[in-house]
Amino acid sequence: MSMNTLTNFLEQAQCQYRIYDLGRIVQKVSNSEFKKVADNEQAYPYPIQQHAFIALTFWQVAAQKEHFVWFLKMPLDEQGLMKITAQTSFIRMIVEAMGEDLTAKISDKLQERLASNPFVFKPSAEKLAIFNANINSAFIRPASSFYPSVQNYFSGEEDWQQWKTLGFQGFADLAARLNYDNNQQKIINALDHLPEQPLQTLCLCLENQSDINTELAEKITQQATKRLQLGQDTTAVLLLRAIASANAQGMTKQLLNEQFSSTLVHQADWYITIAGRCWAQLEDETLLNRYFEALATHHQALFPQLFADLVAIPALRDKVLKQLRLTARSPALSQAIGLLFSGLKENT
Hints:
Layout: H1 6-12, E1 16-21, E2 27-29, H2 31-38, E3 51-59, E4 68-75, H3 84-98, H4 108-115, H5 125-138, H6 147-154, H7 168-176, H8 183-190, H9 196-206, H10 214-229, H11 233-242, H12 249-260, H13 268-277, H14 285-298, H15 303-311, H16 317-323, H17 331-346
Antiparallel strand pairs: 1-2, 1-3, 3-4
Helix pairs in contact: 5-7, 6-7, 7-9, 8-10, 9-11, 10-11, 10-12, 11-13, 14-17
C-alpha cells in the first residue's frame, strides 16, 4: 500500500479519523470526500490562499486511547489539488519523529519538534474554542465549565448587562448544542435583549452551525435589519455571518439581498464576509454578478483579492470565470476586470 497520502497513512496506522476544515468556518469534511482530496481525485473544497487549513483528529479504537489532533496547513496547487509531495514530506517527518505508533505518549521535546513542522499551524483562540465545542458535541462529551453560566445568561435569569465574565468557550458550547437544553429557543428569546458585545460573540459561534432552525434564522434576519437601523453596522454584518451555515439558506439569501440595498455596500468588511462566509450564496449567478458589480463600484481596490479568493473555490470557479465574459456590465465592473488582467500581466 501507498504511504504517500494522509488517509493511507492513517489507515495503515489502524487509526480512525475525522476531518474538519478550519479555513473559512469550522465544518466537518466527510472521510470519503477527504480521501478523494488526498488522492488528488478532486480539489479541496474550501481553499484559503492556496492552502487547506484542517484539523485532523484520530484515534485507535482497539487500544482505547484518547483522541489526538493535528492542525495542518497543506499547500494546494493551481488546480486546488492537495500536493502529494507535501503529504509525503509531512508523513516522513511524523514517522521520523514518532515511529509507527501515532498515539504514543509524546515528550515535551517531541512536542516542540512536531510544533515546528512546516505543515503544522496554530489556530486562533476563537477557532480552537469552536472546534473543541463542535467535536465534544459530536462525540457526546461534556461541554466546558463555561457552558452553564452562558446557558444561564441566555435563560434571561440574570441582568443582560452581566456578560463580561462569560467565556468565549461557553458561547461556542451553546452554539454547538443547539439541539440540546432548549438552546435555540433560549437564543430566540434573548436576541432582542443582548448588548452588542455578547451578540457579536454569539454570531461568531453560530456561523459554524448548520442546525440553526427556520425560526432562529428568521429572528436573526429581523435582528440584522434592526441593528442596521440603529447604526450598528458591524453587528449587522456579523448577524449575516451568523446564518452563513444555516440549513434555512433561503433566509440567508433573503438577508443578503436586503443588505445589497443598504449602506453596507460601502463597508469593505461586508464584501470580505460574503466571500469568506457566504460564498455558497454566490452560486446564484445573479447574486454573484450583483456582488461583483457592487464591489467594483464601491471597493475596486479589493476586487483582485476577492476575485482570486472566489475563483479558487471549486464550486464557484466556472461561474466566477463566466463573469469575465459577460458583455452586459457596468463601466465600473469593466474597469475592475481590466485592472485585474493588467495585474495578471505584470505578475507573469
